[in-house]
Amino acid sequence: MKKYFITAVCATVFLVFGGCSSGDDIQQTPAEILYITADEVDLPSADFLRFYGETSGIGLPGGQASGVSFQIFREYDGNFDMNLVYPITPSDQLNQMLTDLALESINDFVAANTRGHIHMRPRTFSYNSDILSVVLDLRFYGEASGFTARHIAISYNLYEEKEIRPQDLFVYGVDFRAAFAYSLREETGLNGLEQFTFDDENIYIHMPNRTLTLPLNSLEGIWQSPSPPPQEIRPKMAITFDDGPHYRLTPILLDALAERNIHATFFLLGASAVAHPEIVERMHAEGHQIGNHSYSHSNLTRLNRRQVEEELDVTSGIIYDITGEKPTLLRPPFGALNDMVLDVSREMGMAVALWSVDPQDWRYLDYYATKAHVIDRSVEGSVILLHDIHEISIYAAIYAIDNLMERGYTFVTIDEMYRHSEIDLEAGVIHRGIYRDLTRR
Ligand code: ZN
Question: Is the overall model pTM greater than 0.70, yes or no?
Fold first, then answer.
């Protein structure tokens, strides 16, 4: 009897997954194999859960993540009544892992009983397009073992073809995981974190008779994303640095940007650029955008037209000599503008790039206030203003960048951000970031 049962499951698995190495008679075909969609699947109903002793079964989290289909297998051989739904994910490897674990559990039950019912339902959770969590809810009723329930959960990175372990989800060095697992074990007697799933809002800890839900936002500082979404689909912001280059600090910043594979926009002073051409060359070579911040950091509105033209023209010439490209962005010192300055910028083919996030780093020279301001105020499409001539600004920038990247943002040049948003940067026109530009119009 036992042997027949296992063969039947094996045949199912063979048909469903193309796997299973049983040498037994596969002619004993399974009763029913169906391809179905979510609408047709009877996910655990309240009745079913009550029947099997679930205490809080209504509104169980999870469902059918995109890219996953379900397959039903039903079989009654006179002794064991099976009603199994398998998830078919885009990963053969994940499918095989789930099948192996389910079979192991089913075989244990069959070995301990001569008759019984076996019920399996999957729920799937999607964190992003690459990361999928699956939990198999298994319910058993056997003559010998009575009612039992089990959850088998796997979280998986489809892109890397790799299982995600609890330790991948918590910031390195934080002992939260151990502490949490301990308190859960104390409370439930279970090694709680072993059976977990997660989506983009919560972690779910699966216990036989209930599911514990932990909102990700309650785990801030502890939780780390197992993989940020791909660069090209992340929301973009632009971080900008004025008044450089600085011979010592700017290279530290460039190293940090290169390490993170992100780009910034630098508004250079002509006088500093001509003093450190190798840094300007590096900025250009590494894909950063370079803008004009005048030669001497003068308030352009206090100069006459000829002086403004000279400040801007000399600076653009210096940048051109080093990089082979003339800047297309002007950021006037102090943001000081009048019609004449706008007119000159239009004549010189430069859009005026102001900002939407300004922590006034140069005024307060306060590392904590600067990073907090940037983190709190920046949103998709922001232009962040900092100065790479102050040490606190460099380290506040790096901290804020890491924090915002962990939340899914990426950093691009002003040019790229506008190109992506399909908004033109117009010469002689003031731009203050995507959101400000759109709301102003
Ligand atoms: Zn400045």
Answer: no
